[in-house]
């Protein structure tokens, strides 16, 4: 039989040397690079777990000289901190074995039924299981973080009842409602009356929105009683087997204010351009007309030079006015 | 003698300049000037000309909206293609917008030059 070549480091908390030797022997049959450490008391076990945290698995006998039973399982699993703990029981404690799982042990084995195959399988299974659990926990945390730490407010509401199911930190900050207050509202409560009809409430509406314009504008009510203009990105999500809507919200109140201000300024600017184009140019055109008139009469060469300078200056001024007018026409 | 050119402009200096330039080009032109758009409209509506005169009208009169004056002239068919708009504005939209009026024959940007007046003089003599 080919042995498992991966290195395993296993802590055996067992005060009975005979039992420890059997375990060690059984494991060696399947595992080539085995390192077992035996400790005989709870006190020792605690020290080992605290100082060296690189064990792949812990075998725990249920009765030690200084601690046993429920308390022992609780304390060891706490100190093992993620390392799988497999409880070893005698027949008499069979019932307790099941209970130990609830206390945090990953598995239990009956000592009298031990065999090399059973032990090895238990090791593989429990190490794997712990890995899965920690991966799962991590990815769950990642998603929770994505939701909670998103700089955009996010609301989740039930598609049917419209009750708000979840909100993130940014939503709480933006709207001023506490989490509890949010969870007692439905999505219509944060909309102004005139907008309720255009809400993506029904699934049918939803598909329409997603197809035609994935983004939608709305006005949302805050706790203070004022409104913010928002752009919402809706998506259907499934929470506890119910359809829910998750909306990612972008507060565009400030943007709209800026746009409004810019439009106002453009209007003023157009007025100034109009003044340039017409009002300023009216007396200038008059001067140019006068020069046309002057050029029709004979004048002496010296005065002619002066006239030319005036003409040149007027033409330059005219060009400036035209430039301003043509640039401002594009606004 | 019946006038053969009417100029409507509330800029009196501009009127004076125009008057003198016309005198230089063709002293026989009989010029009638108005500083009030309303008075000009009243005159055009009440007087039946044997030969309807050409009209130069400033686009930005104080007493009447520029489009109103053109609307009034629309109802006088004898002035169709007889009106030139004069304006000191360099707004490029104005010539375009005024094109929809039957009365408008052209758009003249101030200052009015001798060349422009010569071609108007030509039209008057062909009238």
Compose a concise summary of this entry.
The complex is a heterodimer of chains A (331) and B (127). Chain A has 331 residues and is of the alpha/beta class.
Uncertain runs of chain A = none
Provide the residue-averaged pLDDT of chain B. 89
Q: Under the CATH scheme, which class of chain B?
A: Alpha Beta
Largest beta sheet: strand ordering of chain B: 2-1-3-4-5
Structural class of chain B: alpha/beta
Strand order of the largest sheet of chain A: 2-1-3-4-5
**Known CATH architecture of chain B:** 3-Layer(aba) Sandwich
Structure description:
The complex is a heterodimer of chains A (331) and B (127). Chain A is α/β, with parallel strands linked by helices and 331 residues long. Chain A folds into three domains: 8-145, 3-Layer(aba) Sandwich (Rossmann fold), CATH 3.40.50; 154-251, PAS domain (Beta-Lactamase), CATH 3.30.450; 256-329, Helix Hairpins. Chain A has ten helices and ten strands. In chain A, α9 runs antiparallel to α10. The radius of gyration of chain A is 41 Å and the shape is elongated. Chain B is α/β, with parallel strands linked by helices. Chain B has one domain (5-126): Rossmann fold. Chain B has helices spanning 12-25, 37-46, 66-74, 93-98, 114-126; strands spanning 5-8, 31-34, 54-58, 83-87, 104-109. In chain B, strands 2-1-3-4-5 form a five-stranded parallel sheet. The radius of gyration of chain B is 13 Å and the shape is globular. The mean pLDDT of chain B is 89. The chains are: A alpha/beta (331), B alpha/beta (127). Chain A binds chain B through residues 274, 277-278, 281-282, 284-286, 288-290, 292-293, 296, 321-322, 325-326, 329, and chain B through 11, 13-14, 17-18, 20-21, 24, 60, 87-93, 109-114.
């Amino acid at each position: 039989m080919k042995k498992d070549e991966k290195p395993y480091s296993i802590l055996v908390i067992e005060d009975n040397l005979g039992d420890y030797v059997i375990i060690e022997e059984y494991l060696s049959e399947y595992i080539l690079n085995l390192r077992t450490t035996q400790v005989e008391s709870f006190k020792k076990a605690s020290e080992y777990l605290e100082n060296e945290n690189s064990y792949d698995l812990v075998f725990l006998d249920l009765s030690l000289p200084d601690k046993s039973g429920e308390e022992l399982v609780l304390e060891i699993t706490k100190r093992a901190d993620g390392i799988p703990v497999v409880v070893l029981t005698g027949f008499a404690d069979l019932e307790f074995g099941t209970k130990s799982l609830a206390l945090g042990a990953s598995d239990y084995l009956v000592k009298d039924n031990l065999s090399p195959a059973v032990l090895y399988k238990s090791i593989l299974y429990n190490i794997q299981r712990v890995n899965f659990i920690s991966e799962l926990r991590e990815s769950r945390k990642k998603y929770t973080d994505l939701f909670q730490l998103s700089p955009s407010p996010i609301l989740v509401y039930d598609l049917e009842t419209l009750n708000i199911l979840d909100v993130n930190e940014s939503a709480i900050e933006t709207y001023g409602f506490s989490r509890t207050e949010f969870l007692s509202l439905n999505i219509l409560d944060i909309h102004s009356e005139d907008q309720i009809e255009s809400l993506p409430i029904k699934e049918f509406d939803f598909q329409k929105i997603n197809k035609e314009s994935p983004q939608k504008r709305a006005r949302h009510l805050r706790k203070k009683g004022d409104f913010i203009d928002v752009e919402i990105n809706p998506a259907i999500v499934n929470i506890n087997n119910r359809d829910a809507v998750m909306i990612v919200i972008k507060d565009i109140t400030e943007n709209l204010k800026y746009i409004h201000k810019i439009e106002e300024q453009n209007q003023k600017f157009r007025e100034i351009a109009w003044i340039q184009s017409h009002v300023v140019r009216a007396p200038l055109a008059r001067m140019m007309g006068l020069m046309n008139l002057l050029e029709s009469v004979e004048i002496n060469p010296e005065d002619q030079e002066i006239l030319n300078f005036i003409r040149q200056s007027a033409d330059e001024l005219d060009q400036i006015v035209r430039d301003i007018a043509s640039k401002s026409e594009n606004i | 003698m019946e006038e053969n050119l009417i100029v409507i402009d509330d800029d009196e200096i501009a009127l004076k300049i125009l008057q003198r330039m016309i005198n230089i080009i063709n002293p026989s032109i009989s010029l009638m000037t108005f500083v009030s758009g309303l008075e000009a409209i009243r005159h055009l509506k009440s007087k039946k000309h044997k030969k309807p005169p050409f009209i130069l009208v400033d686009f930005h009169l104080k007493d009447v909206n520029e489009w109103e004056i053109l609307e009034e002239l629309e109802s006088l068919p004898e002035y169709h293609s007889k009106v030139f708009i004069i304006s000191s504005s360099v707004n490029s939209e104005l010539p375009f917008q005024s094109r929809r009026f039957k009365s408008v024959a052209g758009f003249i940007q101030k200052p009015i030059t001798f060349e422009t007046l010569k071609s108007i003089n030509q039209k008057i003599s062909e009238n």
